[in-house]
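Journal club prep — side note

Before the paper discussion, L.F. wants everyone to see what a predicted structure for a comparable chain looks like in token form. Sequence:
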Amino acid sequence: MPIPLGLGLPQMRQYDIGRDVPDVARAAEAVGYESLWVFERALFPEPATQGLYGIPGMAWPDHYRDVADPLITLTLAAAATDRARLGTSVLVAPLHIPFQLARSLASLDAASGGRVVAGLGTGWSLDEYAAASVAPFEQRGAVLDELLDVFAAVWGPDPVSYEGTLTSIAPSVVGPKPAHPIPVLLAASGPPAVRRLVDRADGWMPVATGASKLAEQWQRVRDVAAERGRERPLAVCARANARYSVKPVEGDGRQPFHGSVAQIVEDLVSHAGTGVTEIMLDLQGTPRDATEFIDVATEVYEAARAAGV
């Protein structure tokens, strides 16, 4: 049976956000994409004080300049669609005040008829943490834990009350409530993060960087789940950072999801066999405008379904 396919929405500077997000969202839902996704990049330091992903000397990609706010983008997509789930892949959770983020996601879920999926990570940019001024980077795990606690409280029955390090909620009515329980997916790789994923989340959101690597990572997560006695199944929504090109990419060094439509579909086929329950494709980086983006996304979707994905 084909697995669900999701599409990243246009947030980068070559797009007109107010016009192109609704247009792409409508087109994606019409062609068959089951979910629509956003990512978060709060700023682009110039000059960079820290390498990409914290790796010294690695340059930030130019397409990280001027990325639209993820929740505003999802709101535009929600208003333009009826069925597609609306996900974050991912929100850098510790950049957000927990109570405010819980209320924003609940309101979006209520407005969209229960379509929100909350994909969360802890990020890596020291500059973004400094600008957000919620808590230092070194406290990111503790902030994420508190945020998950606040989600559970705010999305649960009234009166809501909570006492944490960052958040203090006196017994209160807090609404609107989500239309349905909001699934929480976590990006997790290191041992503490995987334990948090197994203990607290509904699913895992890895980056798809090769089918064999993803299969190995998924096995490690399942091993931890077995060790910790988790019985409820974990959803796995893999994020595929694609770079489309008209001509195939030649050579053995081709990165997964980089290349022609046929090559991207080939990678979808191999990754679908790893046990993931959904694949989210972010194709927005290379198209020149929304028209090309829609054309490429449509061609990829139709070719993937023809290939049995």
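L.F.'s comment for the group: The chain is about 40% helix and 15% strand. Keep this in mind when we get to the figures.
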